[in-house]
Amino acid sequence: MRVPKSALIVIDMINPYDFPDAEKLIPSVREAVPVVQEAIDRARRDEALTVYVNDNYGRWRSSSDDLVERALESPHADLVEPIAPHDDALFVIKTRHSIFYSTPLEYLLRQEDVGSVTLTGQVTEQCVLYSALDAYIRHFELHVPPDAVAHIYPELADAALKMMERNMKADLTPVRG
Fold first, then answer.
1. What is the pLDDT of residue 91?
2. Cβ–Cβ < 8 Å for 54, 91
3. Domain containing 65 — which CATH number?
4. Span 15-26, average pLDDT
5. In sequence order, what are the residues at sequence separation of 6 or more whose Cβ sits closer than 8 angstroms to the Cβ of residue 159?
6. Is residue 174 part of a domain?
7. Could you count the other beta carbons within 10 Å of the beta carbon of residue 4?
8. In 10 A of CB 97, how many CB atoms?
């Protein structure tokens, strides 16, 4: 039986944190960043594909380099620097909540023979949840480590994780399990 290749997906972590709910999100991001960094390091060591999928914040002329530079110049650069993309990581720009909506991500994953995705990043009850559903309906095996995702509202994040586990058959084993 063929074991599917895996990919680590880092969602919306390249961020200047200059939006309305940022102050509610930042404490959870501070907890998640070292765990996401550990997941990235593990993926590199295991030679797993690492893909950053990030919002462009309505900046239609931006590139991945522009987004990283802007985030690293922000007052919250300490949340970005430890997890900034390495040269071997791929970067997909998204414009809506799901990592799959109007992006080439599914095509990229299929080209790389990926059958299993690990979703890390933010926001658990928004982009991570919608991306998990889209991964599930595309028949990817799904892993969402609760210690590697950040939330705005803890009660909604808990509900979102339960939905991912029950309805999308997501494995919720923590990175630091």
1. 97
2. yes
3. 3.40.50.850
4. 96
5. 125
6. no
7. 12
8. 18
**What gap in Å lies between CA 39 and CA 48, rounded to an integer?**
10
Name the token pair of 41.
């390091």
Q: Give the type of residue at 60.
A: W
Specify the number of domains making up the chain: 1
In a domain, 175, yes or no: no
Residue 48 lies in a domain: yes
Q: Does the global pTM surpass 0.85?
A: yes
For the stretch 129-141, pLDDT in tens is 999 999 999 999 9
Neighbour count for residue 34 (Cβ, 10 Å): 15
Question: What b/e readout covers 47-82, taking b as 16+ CB neighbours within 10 angstroms?
Answer: ebbbbbbbbebeeeebebeebbebbeeeebeebbee
Q: Determine the structural domain holding residue 71 and report its residue range.
A: 5-168
Residues whose CB falls within 8 Å of the CB of residue 170, separated by 6 or more in sequence, listed in order: 132, 136, 142, 143, 144, 161, 164
Whether 173 is covered by a domain: the verdict is no
Q: What angle, 0 to 180 degrees and rounded to 10, lies between the N-to-C axes of helices 154-168 and 129-137?
A: 10
- The helix/strand/coil state of 134 is helix
